[in-house]
Design brief:
365 residues; alpha/beta; Aspartate Aminotransferase, domain 2; Aspartate Aminotransferase, domain 1; 2 domains; three-stranded antiparallel sheet; 13 strands; 39% helix; globular; binds pyridoxal-5'-phosphate
Length: 365
């Protein structure tokens, strides 16, 4: 039995008639940049997240970058980021000219650790940028409290957290501003690139809308040097269809996570730890194993594909070679990277496939 890591055609097959007609409607509307579908998606996604405003942008990296620019972050400012995250979080910060201040993860949840944030704050700190990695919300209340005390903004990277909830409320408006990606593999995925920002702050929403649309709110009048970063109406139309099934699809992920949890506990493997009050979207199901590479090979021989999120921490990437971020600088991130393994999870796996993954792991010696 073959178990791919991700099969995006399952989502299309389930929703084909609706997606096809939504796409055709855009094609015949002649509205190919912004317009009605984008407006409708923004309203529906804001409502879903419990945020007052949603602004569509071109992708998740731009969502973080535009949020930082809207907060006025630039050269001389410092932004606190997780040492353990996808590289986009870091790229967005360095793109603004601001300085990265990476902080090690809490070892059991992989989230940004509030105690370590406190130590990382200096008089140039402007923003704390937590990432709800793997779809599991970080403990936001202590972070928000630190931010309020020091007059800092909180920007959440929620690219993996569509539908995740923190203390009973969906991610989307806990921090000052929340950045989203609709990359196809995310829980809410487009059929191409897409992204958005949600916030309760009308000023921030307006600045992002202007910055992402050539710095212009009136055609051919450019108030700031903006970018071209808009959500494609074809993608917006597809996202509107998929948003309706997102809660059900997240529920299917939760069920698989539950099956993994009850079948794999007590093994040589560290399973995800979810503290009370945290409701993950289960974007990824990440375990840790000392013999990760051998286990991965064992699974591959049984036609099961796994991935590693992420094999090389950002500070050791060639892109940051010039920054003096030597090996050994973030020992927790470096220690967990060779142990991480993401098992297949998603709304379109059959029970037999998940069973096959579990049985194969249980046979590992
Ligand atoms: C996917 C992702 C992004 C970037 O999203 P893109 O749409 O691919 O640019 C940013 N941060 C995290 C944590 C992600 O997983």
């Amino acid at each position: 039995m073959n178990v791919p890591f991700l099969d995006l055609t399952g989502a299309y097959e389930e929703l084909k008639p609706d997606i096809d007609s939504a796409v055709l409607k855009v094609l015949s509307s002649g509205e190919y940049i912004l317009g009605k579908e984008v407006d409708l998606f923004e309203n529906e996604y804001a409502r879903f997240c419990g945020a007052r405003y949603c602004v569509g942008v071109a992708n998740g990296l731009d969502a973080i970058l535009l949020s930082l620019l809207a907060l006025g972050v630039g050269p001389g400012d410092e932004v606190i980021v997780p040492a353990h995250t996808f590289i986009a979080t870091w790229f967005a910060v360095t793109r603004t000219g601001a300085t990265l201040v990476p902080v090690e993860p809490a070892e059991c949840t992989y989230g940004l650790d509030p105690d370590r944030i406190q130590d990382a704050i200096g008089n140039r700190t402007r923003v704390i940028l937590p990432v709800h990695l793997y779809g599991q919300p970080v403990d936001l209340d202590p972070i928000l409290k630190i931010a309020r005390t020091h007059g800092l903004s909180v920007l959440e990277d929620a690219a993996q957290a569509h539908g995740s909830a923190y203390k009973g409320r969906r991610i989307g408006s806990h921090g000052d501003i929340v950045a989203w990606s609709f990359y196809p593999g995310k829980n809410l995925g487009a059929m191409g690139d897409g992204g958005a920002v949600t916030t309760d702050d009308p000023g921030l929403a307006d600045r992002i809308r202007v910055l992402g649309n050539y710095g212009s709110s009136l055609k051919y009048l450019h108030n700031v040097q903006g970018m071209n970063s808009r959500l494609d109406p074809l993608q917006a139309a597809i996202l509107r269809i998929k948003l309706k099934t997102l809660p059900e699809w997240n529920e299917r992920r939760r069920r698989i996570a539950g099956i993994y949890g009850s079948s794999l506990s007590g093994r040589e493997m560290l399973l995800p730890f979810v503290p009370p009050g945290i409701d993950p979207s289960w974007h990824l199901y990440v375990v840790r194993h000392r013999e990760r590479d051998r286990l991965r090979q064992h699974l591959l021989e049984a036609s099961i594909t796994t991935l590693i999120h992420y094999p090389v921490p950002p500070h050791l990437q060639p892109a940051y070679r010039d920054r003096n971020l030597a090996a050994g600088r973030f020992p927790i991130s470096e220690r967990i990277a060779p142990e991480l393994l993401s098992l297949p999870i998603g709304p379109h796996f059959r029970d037999e496939q998940i069973r096959h993954v579990i049985d194969t792991i249980l046979q590992f010696r």
